[in-house]
Design a protein that fits this description.
- The protein has helices at 2-16, 21-32, 42-54, 69-76, 91-103, 117-126, 143-153, 179-193; strands at 59-63, 83-88, 110-114, 131-136, 154-163, 197-206, 209-218.
- The protein is built from eight helices and seven strands; from the N terminus they run αααβαβαβαβαβαββ.
- It is α/β, with parallel strands linked by helices and 219 residues long.
- It has a seven-stranded mixed β-sheet, sandwiched between helices.
- 44% of the residues lie in helices and 24% in strands.
- Helix 7 (143-153) links the parallel strand 4 (131-136) and strand 5.
- The chain has a single domain, classed as Rossmann fold (3-Layer(aba) Sandwich).
- The longest helix has 15 residues, at 2-16.
């Protein structure tokens, strides 16, 4: 069945999304650089871009840049004069992302910060940022902390999106107390108990397998 999920995903993308050689080359550049193949899928990238359009996003925050694929989708969707701040802990990944931003001609729309997100996020608060949308796709163990910072940095009515919150159903396995799974479970607790959010999760299948995307609105 996972193979079928991937086949359907590719069929939908082929029949729905316009050809985009630049984004294809971004993924190829990531592979050549040896980055892990964990980018969002093309359909997920298109979904992120669509949500940016829906909220009229001019200011977007991304936690976890990798090679810049998802950032490019969102940067292209920003309203005029918009800016995307993306945070990447690995300097080598950031170097690949910079080259990809130039390849996609979005350099002027992207502010790439290199460092641990839990050190960069307080700096963004001090700088007075207010984001329309935040996309969290980094180390899962720190998801609860990232969500807490997002509640401070995202404006009321803005969106907070968190990727990989189902993990092929492993969230149900109480015997699995790995940091990643504990971080995901902690995120659910934050979103349920924190009155600043209203949230839901969409389970997803496709070329990324079985997972899920959390979508939260900042009250």
């Amino acid at each position: 069945m996972p193979d079928r999920f991937a086949e359907v995903d590719r069929w939908i993308a082929r029949h729905l999304l316009p050809a985009d050689p630049i984004l294809d080359e971004v993924l190829a550049a990531n592979a050549r650089a040896g980055l892990p193949p964990i980018d969002v899928s093309p359909l997920q990238g298109a979904f992120l871009a669509l949500l940016c359009h829906v909220v009229g996003a001019r200011h977007v925050l991304e936690v976890g840049t990798l090679g810049g694929y998802s950032a490019i989708w969102m940067a292209r969707a920003l309203a005029d004069g918009g800016r995307l701040v993306t945070i990447e802990a690995d300097p080598r990944h950031a170097e690949v992302a910079r080259a990809n931003f130039a390849r996609a001609d979005v350099v002027r729309r992207v502010d790439l910060r290199v460092g641990r997100a839990l050190e960069v996020l307080p700096q963004l608060v001090d700088e007075g940022h207010a984001f329309d949308l935040a996309f969290i796709d980094a180390d899962k163990a720190n998801n609860p902390a990232y969500a807490d910072w997002a509640a401070t940095l995202v404006r009321p009515g803005g969106l907070v999106l968190v990727d990989n919150v189902v993990r092929e159903g492993r969230i149900l396995d109480e015997a699995d107390d790995s940091p990643d799974l504990e971080g995901i479970r902690g995120l659910y607790a934050v979103m349920r108990m924190d009155g600043r959010f209203e949230a839901t999760v969409l389970q997803t299948v496709g070329i990324k397998g079985w997972d899920g995307l959390m979508i939260a609105r900042r009250r």
